[in-house]
C-alpha cells in the first residue's frame, strides 16, 4: 500500500538527456519585469529610472545636446564607462575628437564605500541647509514630508563615477575597443557612397555592420563562445563635421541622409546584441521637420537644456540646478504603452564629484516684505466676495465675469 502511494506521488517529468545547463546571462544586463527585454545601464542610475529601468538591448538612445555640449558629453562618457566596468565591447565613433582621446577622459568608477561616503557628505550639506531653512520657514510647514529629489536609489545595476578623476588606463584596456574617426576613414576611401547617403554615414554603417558580424554580436547567428554586448557611441551626429549640412541650411542638399542612417542603424541594432547612444546638436538643426523625423526614428530621446548664458542661471529659484531634462520619447517594447515615470519635471545638477538627475521642485516664497498694494487688493476682493457677486463693486476694483 505504501509502495502504491509512493508511485502515485512520483512525477512523470524527466529531464531530456541532451539538454544542457541554462545559458548564463549576459554580463552587465538584467531582464525587465515589465516587457521581458534585456536591459543595460546607461551609466547614470537616475537616468535609468527615467528610461524605465535602463536601455534595452537592441535599442537606440538619442541625446539632444545642450547649447555648449558640456553635459551631453558627460552622459556620453557615462555610457562608455559603464560598458568598461561591465566588460562590454566598445565602438566609439566621432568626427570631432579622436576616440582614443575620448576614452582617456572617462571618469573613474566609485567603489561602494566611497559612494556611501559621498552620499554622507551630501546628506550633511542638505541637513545643514534644512536647519538654516527651519529658522525662516513658517512653523506649520516644518513637519511636512521632505521632497525626494532623486528618482532612484542605489542598486547593484548601474554604477557611480567620480568625474573629478580619470579611469585607470589598465582598466580601460581590459575590454575590446573599436574606434571610428571620420577624418582617418575618409582619407582611405574618400569617394565611397552607399545607401544613397553621404560618405561619412555610409562608412560608419559599414564599420558597425562589419564588427557586429565578425565579433559575434549577430543575434541570428548561433555562437559557440560566450556572448557579450556591444556598446556603440556616436558623438555629435548630424554636425557639419560629418559632412552634413542640416545644421547650416533650412533646405539642405540631402535632407534624408541623416534619417536614412538612423533607419539602417536601427535595423542593425534590432538583430544584434548591442545598444547605441547618439548625441545630436538639435539646437543647431535649422529645419525642425528633420529633427522631428530623427526623433521618430529613435527609441529613446532625452533633451538637455543648460542654464549657461540664460536668465535661469541667475534666477534664485534655480540656484540648485544647472539645467533641465526633457524626456521626448520612451520606447514601447512588447507592450501597448510605455513605462511612464511618476514625474515629468526633471532637472540635473553637477555636484562636486557626481552628476545627478533629480525631480525639479521650487522652494517656497520666503520673501519678508509684501507690498501694501497687494494687501489692499486682497482686502478689497474679500469685501466684494462677502457682499455677493451681484453687488456693485465700490472703488476702483471691479469683478470681471
TrEMBL record:
Ranges where the record places region Disordered: 1-31
Pfam families: PAXNEB
Pathway linked to the protein: tRNA modification; 5-methoxycarbonylmethyl-2-thiouridine-tRNA biosynthesis
Subcellular location, record wording: Cytoplasm; Nucleus
Entries under CDD domains matching the protein: Elp4 (cd19494)
UniProt entry keywords in alphabetical sequence: Cytoplasm, Nucleus, tRNA processing
InterPro entries (alphabetical): Elongator_complex_protein_4, P-loop_NTPase
One BP term from GO: tRNA wobble uridine modification
A GO cellular component annotation in the UniProt record: elongator holoenzyme complex
Family label: Belongs to the ELP4 family.
Function field: Component of the elongator complex which is required for multiple tRNA modifications, including mcm5U (5-methoxycarbonylmethyl uridine), mcm5s2U (5-methoxycarbonylmethyl-2-thiouridine), and ncm5U (5-carbamoylmethyl uridine). The elongator complex catalyzes the formation of carboxymethyluridine in the wobble base at position 34 in tRNAs.
The name this protein goes by in its record: Elongator complex protein 4
Naturally occurring in which organism (per UniProt): Catharus ustulatus
